[in-house]
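Homework help board

Subject: predicted structure for assignment chain

Our instructor gave us this sequence and asked us to write out the predicted structure in token form, then describe one feature. I got the tokens but I'm not sure how to describe them. Can anyone check?
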Amino acid sequence: MINAIANAFRVPELRRRILFTLTIVGLYRIGAHIPVPGVDLERVQDIIEGQAALGLLNLFSGGALENFAIFALGIMPYITASIIMQLLQGVIPKVEQWAKEGETGRRKITQTTRYLTLGIATVQAIAMIGLFQNTLAPVGITLGLFTRFVIVLTLVAGTALIMWMGELITQRGIGNGMSLMIFASIVARFPIAIVQAVQLGDFAMTVALILIFVFVVAAIVTINQGQRRIPVQYARRVVGRKVYGGSGTYIPLKLNAANVIPIIFASAVLFFPAQLAALTGVGWLQAAGNALAAGWLYYALFAGLIIFFTYFYTALVFNPIDLGDNLRKNGGFIPGVRPGKATISYLEKTMNRITLPGAVFLALVAIAPTALFRATGVTVLEQFGGASILIMVGVALETMTQLESQLKMRHYDGFFK
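My token output:
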């Protein structure tokens, strides 16, 4: 692995991409510690500690919420907007047409997602100001109209800046920018939680937590790298004096084709109502929001949403019709399966079968460590459950895979042997 990293820095283009990515992530972390004007940080931290939904939002923002920084809203408004746009592709014909128009359509979808992100960020910022005002009013603290306007404007501008930084990483850096933003936020909070767990003084519990973490990471890597290989045979064709085809290969169908996207989407959908309930300050809505952020209802809904989004996102990225048509056009066929509709049906059924264990695994790993941490009373690690571990490992694997492909193109050994 050390040799692979050294090889990556020997290639000028890869070195520039890596350094650019690290620079943007560093700027993102600096922004998480620059507070907006006119806010009492101590009272903000007290409010966040009493709200489970705000606690998770604070995790995904890398602690920016408890600092009430310019990046306090984090990347969640963009993720929520992306989910809405993907769902609209199956509802609104115009959006579905954009998705099929290639690069031009993708630009339209991206631009609409940006505007929708700013709208969601504005609503969340106004609701957040309302929550803090309701909490501070009993102690005689009132935020003026101009102060509220400046705070909302700063938070929305911070969200727009995060969105721009993420797109820059995707275009000019290594990996998916939005995923790396979430990765950096979680990793930034993880060492603090580990230190707090060690300070509890229970050595056996600390060792057990480390072993659980290592086991979960190994299981995630195994499932993410797992494949179902569909054998493919190409008919031999003679064109002039050259012979084409006649060789065999395979189609690699990943056991977890959606990677960590279902976890991120499920978290955004599940905690968005909880955030709104917490931000409004209404008593019964706060109780409902906290119920969605913890307990058996949280586990059941979180598992169901993960399985749903795993199938949903896999259906978006895997198109058996195009794959079957490409096989037929190139003279390829699956042994024992007739070309055409039979091949498409076979690929679709196979993908649905292998997606189920992958989706159940994601749901199990996302819930089990969190439930264990809460059952053992290690409250400092409640938010760093399976979902956080899945996101960290998944994004790390995705980024390493991109580096691997870049190194292989330049005849270097990669990370995976």
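Reply (TA_rk): Your tokens look well-formed. For the description, you could write something like this. Residues 104 and 148 are 39 Å apart (CA to CA). That's the kind of observation they're looking for.
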